[in-house]
Automatic annotation (TrEMBL):
Keyword annotations: DNA-binding, Transcription, Transcription regulation
Residues in HTH lacI-type domain copies: 5-59
Record-given protein name: LacI family transcriptional regulator
CDD domains the record matches: HTH_LacI (cd01392)
Keyword Transcription regulation attached: yes
Any Pfam family matching the protein: Peripla_BP_3
Keyword check for Metal-binding: no
Length: 343
């Protein structure tokens, strides 16, 4: 393996001090143009590769955003999160920033862990993706009033974090109104994990909308699981076994909805003639299933972009108190609730 070229090698070739070489590479505005050109020329000739970690330490910044994405044990990061990351990466690139991803197998994220990353210079800021539990810092852990951290998908403003999320209640209200307009009066809700905030918001939105229409006893709840297809399939099998089956089913995610649809169709039931099914998230593949899935599309890419912009506002002092930004979803009626239906 070839010997790594060091600052000392550059100093020997140029006749300059190592400190001058370092400034020319990390802060070229602090040396003369002649010195900068000389150092750059010799560095190029010798094949010098900048030690990014050392450079960041000297500058006091890493230009890096740490993304902490929660997931359930045994599951990969949600496809919704990958869309979100597209927006994060696009916006970060436009601002000259780097992105570092870390999967969290627990639903609890501690400020202590993030502060360690920030203090060691690994990252300058952090995005929390669907953190179910946030353990805020103690006064001894940080002297900053507002940490450079933004929560995505969950409102943590009360815990001191600027947050960006989807208006989930509006999305589920649109689903209920759509199904009511098609004549449905008995409903089932396929749940996610009952201790997860998203599941609670979505179930409550459906229940409250039905109650507002005088249908207080028109909803049953079917146990689902961690927003995946196998959990939806099990819920579908439980639905098939019911003596009196509702005519419409609203699921806590697209993955649950597709697993559910597979189970009921395998049993011989027709979708939507025997049961109408709707999901939530708006994953791309839902437009290509048979039948295509009625869903609510989360603006995941835009959520990612906005989150990075909010980090910039935090760094620039434009945000002095935690702020909540809620983006509107898009309801998409498809074949699983209304044949024939234009996608």
């Amino acid at each position: 393996m070839a010997k790594r070229v060091t600052l000392a090698d550059l100093a020997e070739q140029t006749g300059l001090n190592i400190s001058t070489i370092s400034r020319a590479l990390s802060r070229p505005d602090r040396v003369s143009s002649e010195t900068r050109r000389l150092v750059e020329k010799v560095a190029s000739q010798l094949g010098y590769a900048t030690n990014i970690a050392a450079r960041n330490l000297s500058r006091g910044t890493s230009d890096t955003i740490l993304v902490l994405a929660s997931s359930f044990k045994g599951q990969a990061i949600s496809p919704v999160f990958t869309q979100l990351l597209l927006g994060v990466c696009e916006e970060a690139k436009s601002q000259g920033l780097n992105v570092m991803l870390q999967q969290c197998l627990e639903q609890t994220i501690s400020a202590r862990d993030i502060i360690r990353y920030l203090q060691t210079g690994v990252a300058d800021s952090a995005l929390l993706v669907a953190a179910e539990q946030w353990l805020p810092p103690t006064d001894s852990e940080t002297g900053e009033k507002i940490l450079p951290i933004v929560s995505i998908f969950k409102d943590l403003t009360a815990a001191g974090l600027t947050s960006v999320m989807t208006q989930e209640t509006d999305g589920y209200t649109a689903i209920v109104d759509h199904l009511l307009a098609r004549g449905h009066r008995q409903f089932a809700f396929v749940s996610g994990p009952e201790d997860i905030m998203h599941e609670q918001i979505r179930y409550r939105a459906v229940k409250q909308r039905l109650s507002a229409q005088g249908l207080d006893n028109a909803l049953i709840r079917l146990k689902g699981g961690p927003f995946d297809m196998p959990s939806g399939q099990k819920a579908g099998q439980a639905f098939v076994a019911l003596e009196n089956r509702p005519s419409a089913v609203i699921c806590c995610s697209d993955a649950l909805a597709l697993g559910f649809m597979h189970a009921v169709m395998e049993s011989g039931l027709r979708v939507p003639q025997d049961v109408a099914i709707a999901g939530f998230d708006g994953m791309d593949y839902t437009a290509f299933t048979t039948p295509s899935l009625t869903t609510v599309i989360q603006p995941a890419v835009e959520l990612g972009r906005v989150a990075v912009q909010l980090l910039g506002d935090l760094h620039n002092g434009k945000i002095t108190v935690p702020r909540l930004v809620a983006l509107a979803p898009t309801f998409m009626a498809r074949q699983s609730t209304c044949p024939p239906c234009q996608d």
